[in-house]
Amino acid sequence: MSQGPRRGVPRRIPLTPFALIFGLAALLTIVSLPRGSATGAKPEEPARKVANPSPGAPAGVARTVVHALARLEPEAGLIAVGARAGARVEQITVKEGDQVAAGAKLAVLEGQTQAELQVALALDQKKNADHQRSLGREKLGIEREREDKQREREDKIKKARIDAQEKLIDLAKRRLDTSREIYKTLGQSVQGKVKYDLDMAYYQAEAESLKAQQELKELNEQHVDQDLIDKRRKLEDEQLADDGPDADVLDRQVELARAGLDQTRVSAPAAGRILQLVTHAGELSSGTLLYMGDLSAMTAVAEVYQSDVPEVKVGDPAEVIIQGRKVAGKVTRIGRLVGKNTLASLDPRALQNRRVVEVAIKLDDAAPAADYVNMEVEVTIRPNQGGTQ
Length: 389
Prior knowledge:
The structure is a single chain. The chain is of the alpha+beta class. The protein has helices spanning 17-32, 112-186, 193-220, 224-239, 245-262, 367-370; strands at 66-74, 79-82, 89-92, 99-100, 105-109, 265-267, 272-277, 288-293, 298-305, 317-322, 325-334, 339-340, 355-363, 376-381. It has three domains: 66-77 and 294-381, Efflux pump adaptor protein, beta barrel domain (Elongation Factor Tu (Ef-tu), domain 3); 89-110 and 264-292, CATH 2.40.50.100; 115-256. The protein has six helices and 14 strands. A hairpin with a 2-residue loop joins strand 10 and strand 11. Helix 2 packs antiparallel against helix 3 (193-220) and helix 2 (112-186) runs antiparallel to helix 5 (245-262). The longest helix has 75 residues, at 112-186.
């Protein structure tokens, strides 16, 4: 007599090839179904952070908000202060957090002592040249005073000689006139020695008159020497002038020495706060020494997805979340170049490679962002709410 199955012992079902294939197919179907499909529930959509940039809405559908990632920057931009590469930094005169004025000394480079000596040497050379010109002018003044007094005496003598010569000419002219009258009266009636003496007297009177006139002419022509004196003095004044070629050369040497000194000093190009020191005393400069910026006005530079940019206008209100705090602002600039994003969300489901346009948002209150330059923040822009075309 055959025995039936024992109580409490499961009955074994024989596995045929058909049953095995059917079971594997059913298992694969269940695994491939979305979450909730097995129970009839609606599949759950993955959550998305509102601040993560996402592709724009379909064409013809207006966006009420535009989300983007942004970085905090000074409104005037981040200033990288540098020095010539390879120069050794002898001293950094500021520290991070310092507020400096435009032109303030930030660092000292190698060679400053030598440059200062070169400036001092150039200034001494210029000072010596100025002193020599001053002495030359004083010496020339003394010589000219002596020369003028000598000329004054000579002019008095010359005037007296001219007056005497004019009187002599007048006397010679009268003698000549007298001789001429006597010669006309007696010249035809006398002979021999008397006629000879009469001729000689006439010729002598004529010669004395001509000589007196010639001497007077020579005295008057001495004024030409004064013209030469004036020309000489003009040349002397040009040689001793403060704006002469020699003075210009010395001025250029001083400027060159000061330019060399300026190369050993690094000054602040504008007022602002020291944000980061890149190079320290004793190191060789690689180009950038430090970063600084004016933190009194801050902006958030957002990377807006290219399809959302047409909806954004200058003046649109916006909100920037900084350390959990919402700070209001307005769009002040919309870029013209489309490029690859440099900011990426930490959410692995968000798009990482996007084409974006930079949009600047000026913050109404700069204080919350002043200590977080370059921080990545979330931005919400509300298009068509006060913006301009």
